[in-house]
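Quick one, tokens below. Sequence please?
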């Protein structure tokens, strides 16, 4: 019991929004050079120092809390969030965090039409599954070494680009993007389909295409990691709450079935009792009539 309580306390601590000092230590406050800034990011800039913009971490913290709450609700409803990060310093972090919560991710080149032409992407994923099936049942055993090598290269290429979205059978309910400027194609496709976009935006980004902006340094690994930790912890919490609700529903259904089974014998006994009560007056009626007929001649 103590271990369970301690694990819950540890889980609760990991779900808390990072403090100001944690964001500061992760260098979330460093923006780009002043000459590279986007004026649309002005509300999130605190000051300029040595020609570099400094991001207001209080606003970062507030936006991160808002994003975490929204992501938690999406996960609680059983929907998917697609993580996108093709820049080198964020690839491994995104892959690890997304895998830990069972969400799809894209860390290689963004496939054009990934969202707007989703059926074609699904065909490519199915092709990869068909290659695996044919390899396992020995169909490719009759191929020459050169042909087999070509098939293996094709399989490896599909795995590299689409292996992380095998479980994405329908369009995601939200997109989480690291570096809004670099992943512009993904953001535009999501906007076109009306898919909500969560994005880490630096001072050189345009936040107008993002539904929920998290202003922070998108070039530092530590900065990306601390933000993803908070968001993925919220997603994990939403998934756990969904599991708990389903367990409660199953328990309620089982209890209702058990109550119904208990009520059935009672209803049957009540029905038998009612039939006996109805049959008793019917049996007494002929006896009463015979007694009345016997009394009538005596009176005469």
């Amino acid at each position: 019991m103590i271990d369970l309580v301690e694990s819950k306390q540890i889980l609760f601590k990991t779900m808390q929004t990072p403090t100001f000092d944690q964001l500061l230590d992760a260098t979330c406050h460093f923006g780009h050079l002043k000459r590279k800034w986007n004026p649309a990011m002005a509300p999130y800039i605190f000051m300029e120092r040595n020609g570099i913009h400094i991001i207001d971490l209080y606003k970062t913290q507030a936006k991160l809390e808002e994003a975490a709450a929204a992501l938690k609700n999406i996960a609680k409803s059983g929907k998917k969030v697609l993580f996108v990060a093709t820049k080198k310093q964020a690839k491994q972090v995104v892959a690890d965090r997304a895998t830990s919560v069972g969400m799809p991710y894209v860390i290689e080149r963004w496939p054009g039409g990934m969202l707007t032409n989703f059926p074609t992407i699904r065909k490519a994923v199915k092709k990869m599954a068909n290659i695996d099936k044919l390899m396992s049942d020995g169909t490719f055993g009759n191929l020459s070494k050169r042909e087999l090598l070509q098939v293996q290269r094709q399989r490896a290429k599909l795995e590299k680009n689409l292996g992380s979205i095998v479980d994405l059978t329908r369009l995601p309910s939200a997109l989480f993007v690291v570096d809004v400027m670099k992943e512009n194609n993904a953001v535009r496709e999501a906007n076109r389909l009306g898919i909500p976009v969560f994005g880490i935006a630096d001072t050189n980004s345009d936040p107008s295409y993002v539904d929920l902006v998290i202003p922070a340094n998108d070039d530092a690994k530590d900065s990306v990691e601390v933000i993803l930790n908070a968001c993925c912890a919220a997603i994990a919490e939403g998934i756990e709450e969904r599991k708990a609700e389903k367990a409660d529903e199953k328990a309620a259904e089982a209890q209702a079935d058990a109550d119904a089974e208990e009520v059935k014998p009672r209803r049957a006994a009540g029905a038998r009792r009612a039939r006996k009560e109805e049959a008793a007056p019917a049996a007494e009626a002929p006896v009463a009539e015979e007694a009345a007929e016997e009394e009538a001649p005596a009176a005469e």
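The beta strands are 30-33, 45-49, 52-55, 81-84, 105-106, 174-178, 197-201, 212-215. Helices lie at 2-15, 20-25, 57-76, 88-100, 118-136, 145-162, 184-193, 221-299.
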